[in-house]
């Protein structure tokens, strides 16, 4: 497994088109930005807002982790993984069964 860098988004292998990656990342970024600008820097609340929006848009079973320092070891569905940095936070978003 390897990472390719596209602006501030990370893509694993070639699962997404660049356009799909940026589209989904922009949705998650907008949610994070709105939360932060409204004074909410609570990582759990930001993750909750992103997860709920992705569940609404793309079906349930999305998982979201937001933080400044974390490690992970996960299993995700193919074409359902996104990792990026925004506003000092790392955002990991993936879908599983």
UniProtKB/TrEMBL annotation:
Coiled coil: none annotated. It is found in: Cytoplasm, Cytoskeleton; Nucleus. One of its GO terms (biological process) is mRNA transport. Pfam families: Dynein_light (PF01221). Belongs to the dynein light chain family. Gene3D superfamilies: Protein Inhibitor Of Neuronal Nitric Oxide Synthase. Keywords: Cytoplasm, Cytoskeleton, Dynein, Microtubule, Motor protein, mRNA transport, Nucleus, Protein transport, Transport. GO terms for molecular function: dynein intermediate chain binding. It comes from the Eukaryota. GO terms for cellular component: cytoplasmic dynein complex; microtubule; nucleus. This is Dynein light chain. It comes from Parascaris equorum (Equine roundworm).
């Amino acid at each position: 497994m390897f990472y390719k860098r596209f602006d501030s988004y990370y893509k694993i292998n070639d699962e997404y088109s660049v356009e799909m990656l940026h589209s989904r990342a922009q949705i998650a970024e907008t949610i994070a930005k709105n939360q932060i600008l409204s004074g909410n820097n609570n990582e759990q609340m930001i993750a909750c807002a992103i997860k709920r929006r992705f569940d609404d848009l793309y079906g349930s079973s999305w998982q979201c982790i937001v933080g400044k320092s974390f490690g992970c070891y996960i299993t995700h569905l193919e074409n359902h993984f996104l990792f990026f940095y925004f506003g000092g936070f790392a955002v990991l978003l993936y879908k599983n069964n």
